[in-house]
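Board work, copied verbatim: Acyl-CoA dehydrogenase family protein
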Amino acid sequence: MSEASEPTTPARADPLRTRAGLGRRAGRSEAPGDGVQDLTDRVRKFIDHQVIPVEREIETDPEVRAELRAAARAAGVFAPSAPRGYGGLGLSMLEQADVLEESGRSLLGPLVMNCAAPDEGNMTLLEHVATPAQRERYLRPLATGDVRSAFAMTEPAPGAGSDPAALTTTAVRDGGDWLIDGGKWLITGADGAAFFIVMARTGADAATMFLVDAGSPGLSVGRHIPTIDAGFTGGHCEMVFERCRVPSSAVLGEVDRGFANAQVRLGPARLTHCMRWLGVARRAHEIMLGYVVERELFGHRLADLGLAQHLIADNEIDIAASRALIRTTAATLDKHGRANNETSIAKTFVSEAVGRIVDRSVQLCGGQGVSHDLPLARFLAEVRPFRIYDGPSEVHRWAVARRAVRRYEAARRGGQGSAEFVTRDPQGGIRA
Ligand SMILES: Cc1cc2nc3c(=O)[nH]c(=O)nc-3n(C[C@H](O)[C@H](O)[C@H](O)COP(=O)(O)OP(=O)(O)OC[C@H]3O[C@@H](n4cnc5c(N)ncnc54)[C@H](O)[C@@H]3O)c2cc1C
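↓ predict structure ↓
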């Protein structure tokens, strides 16, 4: 899972512009292919018939989890986001929209289908930024589900959080190696991860990403930070680096290009989070509908009482609006490889909408809604942190507002009237 928002350090060349766009990478299409509807149907059936009936057991029983992973492979729904050459289904962002939404209808769905955070985002990053040797060593076992990984950016105050430029973890050259020093926290999946993608400062305004193997001398994974959610394998952990020595081959991407290269992960990872959490919200909505059509109150079905209909309709509106934003953003990412403004808007809206949808569903289910007989209370806790990780809502709103003002000012300098200022660039993407 991620971590931070827009780096405030000066950006140089943009890796998403210098590399092929996300949708144009080998084996990926820009539009949903014919098979995606079929795949989406298979995922829905897999989640409904094989995952949801045992989801409580999966959490505590690793054997059930392993069996379900085998079942996901057999159903042809395993690793939808991973590249084809590495055993995945190689879906474009737009193709992932419905598939990942369906996977998210169970909290455990993405895990058994190997499209959960943080591995899914790390696969995207490795696919685009890693050397062929690094892809063999790290991406392949990640895509096959043999190992887990983590992305380590955030640090305790005063270090990197909403503002990645506050990064305090350092990496300095020592002969042909690098020595990493510093502390991280809230690192999802760190306990049990086979490797970490670590962001460290390598200059006044520069950072570099490193691939660090678990068990490297000088690296320790510490306390699980107790958080409101509980759905991520490997917890949200503290990490300490003390003269942690890594070879030069551990550099992921170019030295000093860490902030720019991290964008390869952050935009798509925010959107895939939106897809999965929308699935959770939809499931909450479905459970609520099941309750309101059965419950009789004041001589009517609950579903027919006006104030209840208001909540039901608002859920429908939030689901439809979230889906539309996810799709347009996914299409822009596929087409241009970059969609900073769209991902900020989608992430802010969807992270808040899923909270509203689950909360309304809890409300209409009454006492059962807050009990653990239904999964709704659990969903409420699981979706809340999404308004903070992947960039807090306030940071994204700040970025969206600054871009709007910049756009307006640029249009005015260009002689266009305020009513006519351009909101879309010639390629169809909202300007970042
Ligand atoms: C469950 C969970 C999992 C996580 N997993 C990972 C992970 O795997 N890897 C990783 O590196 N990090 C991870 N994080 C960390 C997460 O990315 C950070 O918590 C997030 O970036 C915010 O940083 P911070 O906690 O330091 O809060 P701060 O940076 O201290 O921000 C606090 C609050 O200030 C407000 N704020 C910030 N900027 C502005 C602004 N410009 N204007 C107005 N208000 C503002 C926001 O409300 C924000 O929530 C995870 C966090 C959580 C909760």
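The longest strand covers residues 177-188.
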